[in-house]
Amino acid sequence: MTKPLISIEALARRYPKHGGGETTVFENVWLPIEKGEFVCLIGHSGCGKTTILNVLAGLDQPSGGVVIVDGREISGPSLDRAVIFQGHSLLPWMTVMGNVAFAVTSRHPHWPKDKVRAHCQKYIDVVHLTGSEHKKPAELSGGMKQRVGIARALAIEPKMLLMDEPFSALDALTRGSLQDEVRRICTETEQTVFMITHDIDEAMLLADRIVLMTNGPEAKIAEIVENTLPKDRSRADVHKHANYYALRNHLLDFLVTRSKNFAVEIAAGAYDPRRPPVVRPGERAPAQPPPPIDAPRAVSA
Amino acid sequence: MTRSLSLRAGLLSLAILAGTIAIWHFATLPTAGSAGNVDPEYAALVSGAAAEGQKSTFPTPADVAATLWKHLKDPFYVRGANDQGVGIQLAYSLGRVLIGYLIAAAVAIPLGFLIGMSPLATRALDPFIQILKPISPLAWMPLALYTIKDSGISAIFVIFICSLWPMLINTAFGVASVRKEWLNVAATLEVGALRKAFMVILPAAAPTIMTGMRISIGIAWLVIVAAEMLVGGTGIGYFVWNEWNNLSIGNIITAILLIGLVGMILDVALARAARLVAYRE
Ligand SMILES: Nc1ncnc2c1ncn2[C@@H]1O[C@H](COP(=O)(O)OP(=O)(O)OP(=O)(O)O)[C@@H](O)[C@H]1O
Ligand SMILES: [Mg+2]
């Protein structure tokens, strides 16, 4: 197996508790992410998903563990890891073009103006915002703003895309069409993506692997679910596939009951946080033992 | 609907103006025999003219209109040091205000930027700002006259001091409260410090900074009149004081109207500028 693009190793985050002591939000989180892979992280509110994403983005420091990108430990934010924030976080005094261009000139400071423009236009077209280049964010709908955020992230051509519940603030129709767009763009460009979501259907449509986190505090990666739906799935026919309900029920079951009581499962079996069980719902014979998604890197420990 | 509202508001404004002028007119109609009873203390207080028993009734609106017209017809005459057109006096005052104000802006905005960027500086400088801010700018005047020994520059210094605080405090506040997500955007794009300051923090804080600038220009224009009354020589404040000594109420009212007009123009100009940097979220 090739070396993963990103490797999360023994990551932990603790906060000082009121009146002494510490609360551990999560600990001993291990997760490799391959190049070109689309990984979704699902877990209940407060289990530390945003914290993990912020650590990946370099905006937050972990209390323990490391994130290794391309063989090097990350030390801060980087243009190689573009973030699509939960609130679109466009700069409201700039136009759509201005926002995208701000990102592009950050990546390519020496590009002439018209080259920057052309490059931005390409990505504005990709997210179907042609004609809205000169609008300010306040003049756009929620879905359009989110698409500008996506264009801004894509335009810097990052090695990896980090998305924190990018569609959660949108209505179902807009969300659906944006999911389709993101899926098209990401498969076309073989983009590596790490996305947080609350939405099972979204994860099933977009992700190659779905990472399930237990409830906090002391959240862990409980399981990694491989998407058993065909690669060429689309929103319109995904529910017709034979594995659809097996996969969906497995995820629902985890969120509704197992995420709370995972400690019991840990006590019962051989749970290894470095190699959380991998499941492929709907497939007759689950690969036994689970195929190692990656041999964890030998770290001095 | 809105058009009819502004129409009605305009009509009401005109009615209030007409009413005020009418009351003023009837209240100041010359009445016989009112000249004799001048309070001797008052007569002593007001110099020359009144003490000589010269009649000095409050001017009627028509008198003031005539005086105003006289001034507006020839605002820039110079007949000796003590007799210059009201336009020249206003120009002196405006000049002092603008110089003091611009120096204050040049100090307050960069300084406020640094304070706002650093929580340490915010905390460390806060007690000084809190104590210095409420001091009436005129209280600095004796100190300024003593150290600077030039009345014109002292007036500018007083303007500088009074314009400083609102701009300093607003800039620091605006910079300190730039939304975290916008800073995160800049961070993930690896934007350099200078580019971040000018492309993200400055535009984000600009509306707050402009509010401070608008407050400052208003205060500066209030203070210049008082400052010029103290230092004398030139300026609209001096003009008012001088006309008081001449007991020329018509000139004083003219000056008051013009002070109000200029203040309004300054405020409108800054409100326009504020609209240029405003953004909707
Ligand atoms: N500054 C802080 N001090 C103390 N605890 C914090 C702080 N920031 C976050 N936490 C805790 O860390 C935990 C994880 O927060 P995080 O934002 O990562 O959750 P999340 O999984 O993204 O939740 P959601 O799905 O609601 O967005 C929360 O329980 C929160 O209480
Ligand atoms: Mg979150």
What can you tell me about this protein's structure?
The complex is a heterodimer of chains A (301) and B (281). With 301 residues, chain A is an alpha/beta fold. Chain A has a domain at 6-80 and 158-261 and 270-279: Rossmann fold. In chain A, 32% of the residues lie in helices and 21% in strands. Chain A has helices at residues 49-57, 96-107, 113-126, 142-155, 172-189, 200-206, 244-258, 262-268, and strands spanning 6-16, 22-33, 38-42, 64-69, 72-73, 81-84, 160-164, 192-197, 209-213, 221-226, 278-279. In chain A, strands 6-7-8-3-9-10-11 form a seven-stranded mixed β-sheet, with helices on both faces. A four-stranded antiparallel β-sheet of chain A has the order 2-1-4-5, with helices on one face. The longest helix of chain A has 18 residues, at 172-189. Chain A is globular. Chain A starts with 5 loop residues before the first strand and ends in a 22-residue tail after the last strand. In chain A, 42% of the residues are buried. Chain B is mainly alpha-helical and 281 residues long. Chain B folds into two domains: 2-56; 86-277, MetI-like (MetI-like fold). Chain B is 77% helix and 0% strand. Chain B contains twelve helices and no strands. Chain B has helices at 2-27, 40-45, 48-51, 61-73, 86-117, 119-132, 141-148, 151-176, 180-188, 193-231, 236-245, 249-277. Chain B is globular. The interface between A and B is medium-sized, with 24 and 20 residues. Adenosine-5'-triphosphate binds at residues 15, 25, 43, 45-51, 216 of chain A. The site of adenosine-5'-triphosphate has 11 residues of chain A, from helix 1. Chain B: It holds the Pfam family BPD_transp_1. Chain B: Residues 90-270 form the ABC transmembrane type-1 domain. Chain B: This is Nitrate ABC transporter permease. Chain B: It is found in: Cell inner membrane; Cell membrane. Chain B: Its main location: membrane.
